[in-house]
DNA sequence: TTGTAAGCGTTATCAA
DNA sequence: TTGATAACGCTTACAA
């Protein structure tokens, strides 16, 4: 039971009285290139001995790896695990395996990860970017390693990307509130910096409301008292628009907005789970489709493998819904 | 800029006018085995050419992979991403990379993943088990691939495992409620089956309360009305003990327990995030330490690599806290 | 301090 | 339908 020596293709060949070439052919499914008898014999022996190939040797000989790196900006977000699931669902069907890395919302870590991933000879990269610096990413493209961005874009359309319709869906949601009589919107978000999702959402709100207040906070060190001071909470025509689910939940839990006598919704935002719906069943939020975004990104990546060329850039938008 | 040919160690050797062995030594940090001059020259050339080694070839030559598989029972749980972070923090410091897989709460998927991971020649496995079937896992041990279980144990102490003190912490928490006058506890959980964490938590409650009611539900299809019917909600001496955070949040959001006139806490459970604390700041919950559990599991795995032997089994308990 | 060369386990070309 | 064998890119005795 406890074989101390690892079996190789040579051992199998010997046992079966064939050459290693034949075993290799069997392993690669070229069954039409051998007699049924040989195939049956190999099948039996391989099963009995529980032989498994050495994937490093396969990679070396075939000159290709089956590892795809996925770098999330922060895996604490439910959004990340969900799109990762989508990615894996596509990759594994094609024999590739997805490896998840976490930038932990830190550009320095992101750089280090990109560097390290690059050095590890991954076959491809799916990146939810933090930095807008394209230089590190170009290193991949220059070496014919396909890259697909997810969630956020960084500019010039030179890299394939799967994003959502941040501007439009925000505009749509904001318009519905404008129609209900709201006069002003207060956006609560982590620092916008130049992160495309946030920039577009703010722009979406500005395209509807003349009066937009922007409050940037740190989710992990949220000072609710300080925040309340900044918000014109008395004004029932002031909508609160929260760009991050975790922040939204904190606000739902800590304000009286839900229990107001006026039954009108005064709080909305982008959500990834159904927790906000548990807390406020009648409210409408902007719901994204991370799983689908992940699957789409993986499909684009797979396509780039087939087409040899890294030159076929695709920009796909997976719509979010206000409901 | 766009090298069409991949550089090899040979190219570097040629450029530097040394042998491939010397380049290899440089790459492996054996700087004391060469002149400073040679080292400097190589450093320069490698930097200029942006050479990277072929990791498949390294693995083949060194006869070891640097990939560790991590199989989570369900990556939707915040618990998983947190312990995965802990694992990665230890692994990457040692040059290993962690690969996350998701059983998606499905034993069939888990089997398939174990099989597939086994076939991919991973160097080690960290598993949050769903099934208690040890046969698939023994395949790894028999091939000298170290395995460490996390969160849940499956029995006979033959496999290293990092768990938490489910029984004790539950007993401690239940006792504090007993002392406050509660007479009965209703446990709400996903089906207990033979999942060790759940079994131990139920046992912990039974060790304190004579009257224990067990309600098994499906988080994704929770019928609140049906659930309410089963609970003796009128009885203010009936404690609700929820074993899963997502369930707990749903209950907090959908019952009036929080807003009762009696200011006594009647609801508690196991939590992984601080969301429940947002919702009920004065309540005490049982808080686990997934990050630490992950890091510990990874450390045990690393230790097993060094000790050659897979025989040194460790069982570590990372305590949870009621606070 | 450096070089030579024999592996590592597979694949794939060419010949039989 | 099969087999021999040269790659694949790197590591590591062993020699020098």
Automatic annotation (TrEMBL), chains A, B:
Residues 5-52 form the HTH cro/C1-type domain. Pfam families: LacI (PF00356), Peripla_BP_4 (PF13407). InterPro entries: Cro/C1-type_HTH, HTH_LacI, Lambda_DNA-bd_dom_sf, Peripla_BP_I, SBP_2_dom. PROSITE patterns: HTH_CROC1 (PS50943), HTH_LACI_1 (PS00356), HTH_LACI_2 (PS50932). Keywords: DNA-binding, Transcription, Transcription regulation. The keyword Cell wall biogenesis/degradation does not apply. GO terms for molecular function: DNA-binding transcription factor activity; transcription cis-regulatory region binding. The keyword Glycosyltransferase does not apply. Residues 7-62 form the HTH lacI-type domain. This is Transcriptional regulator.
